Amino acid sequence: LAPGGRFLEIGKRGVWSSAEAAERRPDASYHLYDLADFLLGDPASLRTDLQRLADELTVGELAPLPVRAFPAESVEAAFRFMAQARHIGKVVVRHRACAPVVRPDGGYVVTGGLGGLGLAVASWLTERRAASIVLVGRHAPTPDAAATVDRLAATGVDVRVVAADVSTNEGVDAVMAEVRASGVPLRGVVHAAGVVDDGAATEQTWARCRDVLAPKIDGAVRLDRATRHLDLDHVVLFSSASALLGPPGQSTYAAANAALDAFAHQRRSAGSPTLSIDWGAWADVGMAAALGDRELAHLTSRGTTMMSPTAALETFGSLLSTSAAQAAVLAVDWSVLLAGFPPGGVPPLLTELGAGSESSGSAGAATVDVRAEIAAAEEDGRAVLDAFVRDQVERVLGLDPGEPLDPVQGLTDLGMDSLMAVELSNRLRGGLALPLPSTVAFEHPTFRALTDHLASLVLPDPGRGAPMPTAPVRRDAGMEAVAALSDEEAADRLLRELEESGY
Fold it and tell me: What percent of the residues of the chain are helix, what percent strand, and what percent coil, each to the nearest 5?
């Protein structure tokens, strides 16, 4: 407080007495008010007092309290400063002003723009009257995509289509040439290009990895280089929740999206307005739209449900008004999802989400329950084991629990592929605390064979509880050759042959 200055503070604790004011700064002149007297005194004088205060503030006789401002990035320092209790006045955390979500005089680039997600984003931009939209795809639009583009253009928005591969310099050059031809300043980029090539990790080759990594990572880097000199409001990278959840079979796709997330943080730390969104599955559009009923049932069994494009785009717009570098948007039942991880296999990022969940069951809880139930069932231990295995098979294959399961029908005939086999093995391994190989469901390819094998491992007397007869095993020269392989070599060969056979 400056000597001779006059300050007004009306707060919860009310007044400083004149004596307290003199002790704080004897050489200063204070204009002090008792809050209770001020508000509860003569009502007729309240208007006069308020007017006098307003006049004194206007002419500068009363000064606002001192303000110490900290940027949002230094919020920890702001709280530390306030905790020291040495400040006078107010401590303020200042957020940067958010750029407009969509400018009516701005242009926008959408890569992957001829796919379901890209066209949905283009429709969203059109509704908000963007001046120009450049849709980028590696190939010419399909008839359905072309019809959507025509519909968007009919609204009066300048919609342009460019056939280009943004993972190459030539492709990005073609995109930027189209932006310049529009005559509209570029204000935002939505990078939604992507390719999926699922497969077990042992089946991945560099060629397959490159095809998945290039559109996302090379595309993001080249677009960054081409637009770094521009004053953009937004750069949005369409990542995937696979980067956070690590679903079976998507090692390369998860890595590509995790790289996008890291790239967004790097750009944001350098001051560039970049956001990476880890999307869950959208209904009706995008890669999930190509899934069949069985695949959708499998997704649901893992706790994941589809988001409507309307809800997803509403969230998309909200996120553009934040300063976040990364956000995950998905519809999921965490308790169901977490229950599918093997013992100790829940990603650290997700452990807190399942902390209070009864069925997140950490794998340890699931292990104790199943083995304890089997032990407690005595003569009915086999029935408990069969029920547990049946439940896991139905969950992984997305089967209707109400339908009977033929115990001698091949699991592959029911729709099991190599990725589902790995997931089933993980579930059985977690529930029974057994070191099962990832190929156990192929080595014992029917429900009966699988449960008989597991019974031999977990029941003190596998014959107890009316066991099912085990199907005879035929050994030939090929099986003898496989027997000579290590577990890793056998699993790799088996999964490769199954993939090549179409499973």
Answer: 50, 10, 40
Give one DSSP letter per residue of 158-207, joined into a string.
EEEEEE--TTSHHHHHHHHHHHHHHTS-EEEEEE---------GGG--HH
Contacts for 425 with CB less than 8 Å, ≥ 6 apart:
436, 437, 438, 439, 440, 441
Q: Which of 129, 136, 95 is nearest to 238 (CA)?
A: 136
pLDDT at position 6 is: 47
Give the integer Cα–Cα distance in Å for 159 and 133: 5
HSE, side-chain direction, 13 A CA sphere, residue 216: 29
Strands (E) across 280-384 are located at: 304-305, 326-329, 331-332
Query: What is the predicted pLDDT for the residue at 289?
Result: 63
Distances (CA, A) of 292 to 4, 62, 200, 251, 405: 79, 71, 20, 22, 21
Q: Which residue is it, tokens 């120009």?
A: 132
For residues 471 and 449, the answer to whether their CB atoms sit within 8 Å is yes
**Angle made by CA atoms 206, 212, 217, in degrees to the nearest 5:** 105
Q: Rg (Cα) of the chain, in Å, rounded?
A: 32
Three-state SS at 409: coil
Report CA 68 to chain centroid distance, whole Å.
Answer: 36
What are the backbone angles phi and psi of residue 189, rounded to the nearest 5°?
A: -130, 130
At 351-407, the pLDDT tens digits run 777 655 444 444 333 444 677 788 887 778 888 899 999 988 888 887 777 788 888
CA distances, 230 to each of 119, 186, 189, 223, 235 (Å): 24, 8, 11, 11, 11
Give the DSSP letter of residue 25.
-
Q: How far apart are the first and last CA of the chain?
A: 78
pLDDT of residue 295: 66
CA–CA dist 249, 210 (Å, integer): 16
| Residue found under tokens 């029920």 | 387
Which residue pairs, CB below 8 angstroms and at least 24 apart, start in 46-53?
53/8
Q: What span, in angstroms and rounded, lies between the C-alpha atoms of 5 and 310? A: 57
E-strand stretches of 273-325: 274-279, 304-305
- State the 10-residue block means of pLDDT for the chain, 503 residues long: 45 41 46 50 72 84 82 80 80 74 95 94 96 95 94 96 96 97 96 87 85 94 95 95 82 93 93 93 75 68 84 93 91 80 70 56 47 79 89 82 86 82 83 84 91 88 46 44 55 59 49
Strands 331-332 and 304-305: antiparallel
Crossing angle of the two packed helices 418-432 and 487-500, in degrees rounded to 10: 140
